[in-house]
Specification:
The chain is of the alpha/beta class. The chain contains 13 helices and 16 strands. A seven-stranded parallel sheet has the order 8-7-6-9-10-11-12. A five-stranded parallel sheet has the order 2-1-3-4-5. It has a four-stranded antiparallel sheet with strand order 14-15-13-16. The relative contact order is 0.12. Bound molecules: nicotinamide-adenine-dinucleotide and 3-phosphoglyceric acid.
Length: 386
């Protein structure tokens, strides 16, 4: 029986992937083997020794202390692409809403309630909300992953000229991108040409303040900026100055902060990008499935800190070892298994940066001391025998 703790509301369709015969969901457990989380911040939360895996039902993992998890042999999963459609639709909605001044226009129309001259007021007042069509305008997309590529393709379909910047684009994302999206090799190549700019990169130290005073200065006057990725990607002080000077006309942001709220030209939504029933279900199902397959079978799919390793069971017992990615570990492991008179039926080893994962299916009698012997190898971080 595995104990799973959920730190945010996780869709019941996802939790149904953890049947009560094998899993108990106990949110008060001090010793869970698995955690299911959305945006709850785990940086200051103690990680118990019992914890084997954390599954983030969503894309961004900046709320999880990844290096600390890796050092403790805790596998961190996310759910790539599972909420991308929800975010992309919201961004397209924001592009239209921003361009046509819908938030201000709606608020203005609400204030007409009770007017005796409503129809006249409408016709007289509407000119203040005139805004440009998207067709023929230029959109810059920074980050062409699951979300950025969908936004770029949708903008092409709306008749926009689309510029894309992503020096690390994956092969899958590149294949899914419309051929009309123009490749920019630098932000300097893209920013001076954009009427609209949207950012879809993960938040990491290297992407902090991707939009800053310098990058904003390269933009066209009156640029409209959309940030449905992470608040930290945009330097708020620089953004507010750009709005004040007219360099930027609008800033749509899914991450409200006190400085942003109430400022003319700023439109904040309450982190709504993934908040659709479809995406909540997709993310929860994917996260629960990843967690279940790792806990029961040692298989790793969509981990952000360990290599993806999966293989069907080949009989006997399965030994799963997380270890440092350095020479001599495999021979030390196989030496111990040989001395223990165990036969290796199947074995796979993969590394990712400084860490590696070795999974072996063995036949023979496993002694109680085997976990301790394998854990005694200097480079070994965690051993599980399933
Ligand atoms: N508002 C929301 O509710 C919501 C929902 C989902 C995701 N997000 C955020 O959006 C981000 C992107 O999500 P995704 O599903 O598209 O992720 P993804 O991993 O599919 O795509 C990210 C892309 O950014 C690119 N990239 C990385 N560093 C870059 C850089 N310095 N310059 C340009 N490109 C760079 C990567 O190559 C990749 O193609 C997530 O990390 C998350 O922070 C927000
Ligand atoms: O990175 C993500 O997937 C989003 O920010 C969604 O976060 P949420 O699951 O808390 O809505």
């Amino acid at each position: 029986m595995y104990t799973i703790k959920t730190l945010n509301a996780i869709s019941p369709v996802g939790l149904a992937k953890l049947p009560a015969t094998q899993f108990e969901v106990d949110n008060d457990s001090p010793t869970p083997q698995g955690i299911l989380v959305r945006s709850a911040d785990l940086h200051e939360v103690p990680l118990p020794d019992s914890l084997l895996a954390i599954a983030r039902a969503g894309a961004g993992t900046n709320n999880i202390p990844i290096d600390k998890c890796t050092a403790a042999g805790i596998v961190v999963f996310n759910t790539p692409g599972a909420n991308a459609n929800a975010v992309a639709e919201l961004v397209v909605g924001a592009l239209v809403a921003g361009s046509r001044n819908l938030p201000d226009a709606i608020a203005w129309a609400q204030n007409l309630k009770g007017s005796q001259t409503l129809a006249k007021d409408v016709e007289k007042g509407k000119k203040q909300f005139v805004g440009p069509e998207l067709r023929g305008k230029t959109l810059g997309v920074i980050g062409l992953g699951a979300i950025g590529s969908r936004v770029a393709n949708a903008a092409v379909a709306l008749g926009m000229e689309v510029l894309g910047y992503d020096p690390y684009i994956s092969i899958d994302a590149a294949w899914s991108l419309s051929r009309s999206v123009q490749h920019c090799v630098s932000l300097g190549d893209m920013l001076p040409r954009c009427d609209y700019l949207t950012v879809h990169v993960p938040y990491m130290p290297s992407t902090k303040h991707t939009i800053n005073a310098q990058t904003l200065s390269m933009c066209k006057d009156g640029v409209r900026v959309f940030n449905f990725a992470r608040g930290e990607l945009v330097d708020t002080t620089a953004m507010l100055a750009a709005l004040e000077s007219g360099k930027a006309a609008q800033y749509f942001c899914d991450f409200p902060s006190d400085e942003l709220l109430g400022v003319k030209g700023v439109y904040c939504t309450p982190h709504l990008g993934a908040s659709t029933p479809e995406s909540e279900t997709n993310c929860a199902v994917m996260a629960a499935t990843e967690l279940s397959d790792y806990l029961k079978n040692g298989n790793i799919l969509h981990s952000v800190n360990l290599p993806d390793v999966q293989q069907p069971r080949a009989g006997g017992r399965r030994i799963c070892i997380i270890h440092k990615n350095e020479p001599g570990v495999i021979s030390a492991i196989t030496g111990i298994l040989t001395n223990a008179n165990l036969n290796i039926e199947n074995m796979v080893n993969k590394g990712k940066k400084d860490v590696a994962y070795t999974m072996l299916d063995v036949t023979g009698t496993i002694a109680d001391s085997l976990t301790e012997q394998l854990s005694g190898i200097d480079a070994v971080i965690r051993v599980r025998i399933l």
